[in-house]
Design goal:
Layout (H helix, E strand, L loop, with lengths): L1 H4 L11 H12 L5 H17 L31 H9 L5 H16 L3 H4 L10 E5 L6 E5 L2 H9 L4 H5 L2
Antiparallel strand pairs: 1-2
Length: 166
Amino acid sequence: LKDFIGEKQINFRDINEEFLDKFLDFLMNRDIVNDTIKKKFKYLKTFLRGVGNVNHYTHYLKYNLSHLKGNKEFENIYTLTDIEYERMKDFEVEDKKLMYARDLFLIGCTTSLRYADIFELNEHNAVKIINLTTSKTDADIKLQVTPLTKMLLEKYNYNLVQHFRK
């Protein structure tokens, strides 16, 4: 979006159908695939949804990208807002299985790892840096362990698989 607007200051009233049309034209003139264009619009829509208590913007959320051909995989991407993420971190219930599911979800949020890779985390490959080869793509990754990830891994003694089987 910054590439599109440059140094210009915009406010929410500037985001209208004409703005979205020009933004779509801008993206289509770049060397990116339609899936990426759809994903960028999903991020923008998620952001607008986050401020959706202002009715003025909600009708722009239905901006149609159906004419773009691409992978359906990106059709329904929803991201958490910062408020939703903080609420999830503070979510507490007595059911240990629900708390375990929440903890796995939060580790996924802080690392962007798939569940199969989350279960590979242990005290050898996730102390300060996560150093792992992903199971699906065989990509070697190195990520800094966030304080939340460290706390959650320690909570389960770096053995998430054992708790999964309970």
